[in-house]
Amino acid sequence: MLAILLLAGCQGESSRVQAAASDNTPASDNAPASDNTPASDEAALGASDNAPATDVVVLSAYNESGATDESAETIQEWLEEGLIYWRQIGDVPSLIAYYAERQLGITYVGGLLDESDEEQLVVTLAGSDCVIYVEMSLAMAMTTLQARTSYDAFRENLKFIRYREGKIDGYPSRLHYFSDWLLTNQEKGLLTVLFQEEGLPAIEPLDFMSRNRENYRHLADDDAMIEKIRTIEERLTERRLVYIPQDRIPEFEDRFRTGDILAFVTTIEGLDITHTGLVKVDGDRVGFYHASLTGSVIVDPNTIHEYTEGRRNVNGIVVARLKSPQM
Q1: CA 125: distance to chain centroid?
Q2: Is pLDDT above 80 for 94?
């Protein structure tokens, strides 16, 4: 049965970033973040104080049964067109960019994955956040690489990416910390986390979710669930990713490819990643696509390095790549 949700954008969303921000931090740094990751977005990176308020959005594909609606029909059309495009160009980075660009202009909406009391697969084109945007782009690319064009095939790929074992088994089965998202999807054989080299700094131990449980409505009053989250945090502490420091990004840029997964490492204690996107290489310019808290899915006007230079709460970046013989 199709469930229609009415969300008031980021208004009233969980205050995870507020828990990490000081009283002297500008208002934009205290803006609520996506619930797909513990503090997922520019709210924690120092986004513009002039960011517009997000309009009320009706989600039209929040859907466990696979029933067709407007968003599902659009996704299937994209998949049919994408398979034709893939057969013409045969280039995986271009294929990921194809789907990334289909979503340009979609409104940024925080908290899309946490509205339901029960964990469900959420699919929508009526709103997006930084992680949903990456997941949607990769799930469509995966479906095309499998030579499939159905909405149901896309949904299965999205579920595979978003959840620990590709199965929905309550709130902890979703990959909340983005380093967990990267490591788990690498273990599944979906992607490779790049530049895990000696001499690069490691992401600090994680405990943000368990330490700020009151800011997560699914954790606030559930001791059993918080213990599961603590177990995940402990496991991640034992297998920490390393990252490219902000000032060393130019040294690595010539090895980036369009469609690479981009994750911004935060300075917030106990947290790993606060924003994500997809790399866009245009000649010597290394930019990126992302769902921006300032309004919608965009091609950022800055390069990756320029963007990080202007963000006081970013330490550096992690880059990953969809597994393919061509990438």
Answers
A1: 15
A2: yes
Rounded distance, CA 290 to CA 298, Å? Answer: 6
Taking every pair of Cα atoms in the chain, the longest distance, rounded to a whole number of angstroms, is 54
CA distance 13 to 29: 14
CB atoms within 10 A of CB 18: 17
Q: Would you tell me the crossing angle of helices 70-89 and 92-102 to the nearest 10 degrees?
A: 150
Q: Is pLDDT at 285 greater than 50 in this prediction?
A: yes
| Superfamily of the domain at 3-322 | Putative xylanase like domain (1.10.3670.10)
**CA dist., res. 133 & res. 190, Å (int):** 17
Phi, psi dihedral angles at 296 (to 5 degrees): -165, 180
Its pTM stands at 0.83
For residues 84-97, b (16+ Cβ closer than 10 Å) or e, as one string?
ebbeeeebbbebbb
Q: Report the interhelical angle of 223-237 vs 178-187 (nearest 10°).
A: 70
Angle subtended at Cα 113 by Cα 108 and Cα 117, rounded to the nearest 5 degrees = 140
